[in-house]
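#struct-help
A.M.: can someone run this one for me? Single chain, 604 residues.
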Amino acid sequence: MQGFDITNPPFDRLSYQESAELRAGLDIGYYAPEEVIIPQGSPSDWLHVVIKGSVEVRDRSTVTTVLGPKDSFDSRALVHGAAGEDFVAAEETLCYLVPRRNVLALIHRNAAFAAFFYADVSRKLDAFAQQRKAEGMDSVLRARVGDVRYRAAVFVEGGISIEQTGHCMRDHDINALFVRDRQRVGVVTGMNLSKAVVLRRLPIETPVREVCHFDVISVDVEDFVFEGLLLMTKHNKRRLAITSNDQYMGFLEDIDILGLFAGNSQLIPGRIDRARSIDDLAAAARDIEAQVERLHRQGVKIDVIAEMTSDLNRRLLARVFEMTAPPTIQEAGCLLLMGSEGRGEQTVRTDQDNALLLDKDVPALDLIRFRDGFSEALAGLGFPPCPGNIMVRNPVWSQSLDSFIRQLKSWVLRGDAEAMMNIAIFLDAVAVTNPIDILIRAKRAMFELMWGEAALLARFASLIDTFATPNLGVLGTIMASVGAGPDEIDLKRAGTFPIVHGVRTLAIDKAILETSTASRIEALVKAGALEPSFGRELIGALHVFMEFRLRSQLYALHKGELESEALLRLDGISTVERDILRDALRVVRQFRDLIRSRYNPGGF
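D.P.: on it. Structure tokens below:
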């Protein structure tokens, strides 16, 4: 059937021959309003693709999703033998019918197509990431030379000595210079200087024009990176001159192109360590943010991006601490990061979530100056103040260990929602400066206060219902309580928060010191608190929400609409992506039910 859209995911993953085979086996089905197309728990002999009309996906009496034209259903019934929900025609509906035997044959031959039919979220996401990675590599090669990070051109005169040229390279922290010699321009590198002195035994007073190369191969700043790569290969060069309007701008080096693929994570720590001022650190902070977007564009998995970014941000904030803390606080104070940074799940910079614990008293004036200086320095680096004032500037979050333990006791005694949220925030804390044993002692004190306190754990667990998890159905039915419009979903409130907080609850119950959500889940599986299969599903769902949120964050940054950084527009994602998101929301609903049944938060 030629009317079938082969560009519609997941069918866009098929080869031309596979597409022809699929079209040849198609049939069409008609369904009357309220007709059950696939009952819950039943297998299916067809993969359905909606042509016209709509299909409600019902879990008991709840409509969890409404499928429209080009949406596919139900992969579970087709491949795994049992539909997870009822699929009911909401109106007169026409569907393409793809025979089960044809689908199974394509699954066995085409791994990318098969990924759509995986039962668990984690495998779907992995397959999706692999496809994006391949697309990302192509996008890197099609980047412009001007998108590559390169040093500005530095020129020397041809008459200066080899020794002077070497000093110039050192002073500019660069390994290649342009050499002007009358009407011509050449290039000299550090290796050229070394070979001239060591191998050719030339005096260091020799003019640099004698050792440079005037056969300059160049690439324009507007050329594609792959064109530069071809020139390097053709001329056996490791670097090319970059030109713009016939002016030399700098050099494109092979390591720069490698950096486009691998990011600059190996270079940024050095920039942080060499920084001598907050302004110097601002450049490193921009590098970290630029790397996030570059790695995402290349299809790097979200957990890898988050781990790399969190590690670099911790280095950055530790350096800010060194620059702003007086010696008394550097000796006695342990800087803590909390929130997504503490859990190692940070991607794009958000507001400050930090604290300071002291293992002994320090002069009051030193502490006051540090509180303001540290928070202001971070604001200057692009970390806005926390709306809830969970930051060093707040005396509640910068005090001695003994007084903070008394603060924990007061929160436990109060037991209200604000107190429980403060405990939850502290649970995510990670130490980035010595003495780190202060944090361990504080967390152990917190665990001791909460062990065996069923009512307290129930109140803590009840925060999981702070925001409702919506059904991915008719756009107008997305619940306002998740803080989104009728065609949007708040990924933090609907997905990330319930997983993070439910896992926090279980972690307190089992006295688990791990801070990242994925590590806590793995520890909970080992402790027997979660089934291994469901643990994998939870981690997969968490990564789904992190992936979609990073996209939303990058989009919001480009649009200058930071207030919408957690909002995902549902009309901007593909059928496959909607399928992954729907599965992730299903996992969240299951996890909520597990927490409710285990802690009975409504009973206290």
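A.M.: thanks! Residues 145-262 form a domain with the CBS-domain fold (CATH 3.10.580.10).
D.P.: also worth noting: Residues 170 and 239 are 19 Å apart (CA to CA).
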